[in-house]
Amino acid sequence: MSNAQVLPLIEPADGQAVVPCCPPLTERPFSAQEAEVAARMFKALGDPVRLRLFSAVASHEGGEACVCDISDVGVSQPTVSHHLKKLKEAGLLSSERRGTWVYYRVEPSVLAAMGQLLAVAPAAA
Known about the structure:
By secondary structure, the chain is mainly alpha-helical. The protein has helices at 32-45, 48-59, 67-70, 77-89, 108-117; strands at residues 64-66, 94-98, 101-105.
């Protein structure tokens, strides 16, 4: 059984801004908990195969991709499945089984939270 924790995601409601898991890197130093959450995300994306799979899903037409459409990343199918599992455990992907295939998607809130984490904090007035 895995002891991985999923990144907290806050879905936008009626046009409200997404609240990221952590403040922008330039805003203030991370707390220990914020650093743990961000590190899990970056660790999952730190592998070139995982980054390629994440990019393939995120950029796929319709915002989701069948595993059959994204498995050509230079490793075997079991290895692709392992990497997709790690991305799911980090909270970066969600999936849905349809018949014999599994479809993956990157939730818009994940991309928004990642963007806000890496954004430059606004200057104080």
